[in-house]
Automatic annotation (TrEMBL):
Family: Belongs to the universal stress protein A family.
The protein's name: Nucleotide-binding universal stress protein, UspA family
UniProt lineage: Bacteria, Pseudomonadati, Pseudomonadota, Alphaproteobacteria, Rhodobacterales
InterPro entries: Rossmann-like_a/b/a_fold, Universal_stress_UspA, UspA
Gene3D superfamilies in the cross-refs: HUPs (3.40.50.620)
Residue ranges constituting the UspA domain according to the UniProt record: 5-144
Source domain of life: Bacteria
Amino acid sequence: MSDLFLIAVDGSDAGKRALAFGAARAQAGGARVLLAHVLEWSPYSFLTREELAERHMRREQEMARADAAFLAPRKAELAALGLSVETVIRYGHVADALCDIAKEHAATQVFVGRTGQAGVTARLFGSVAGTLSQIAPVPCTIVP
């Protein structure tokens, strides 16, 4: 059984670097790739029943759009390189969702890009890369 590399992608330059680095490592080591895209969502909002229904519908639309416009083209690019690629889209807190995905799919390594944010917000709330380095259930490569 080959390794499964979970590569977090979000369309940012950092995500593109993580994708390129993780794909190169997968090619070199014969690993399979799981591309993950997480749509951030805060559970700390209070909505009416109607707002919840509309929000659920919007989520479905956003996930379908993210898959068609973002993940499917990346999957095709990696498949053209001869890699075995699966994709997954989730809603939620990015670091927590990536950890859940890694556990559910038995990933052996996580690749994530680092944006280099160093402002007050990053200090107060942390970054995805920083949080993953502390809570990831498998080795995590943070690509600068």
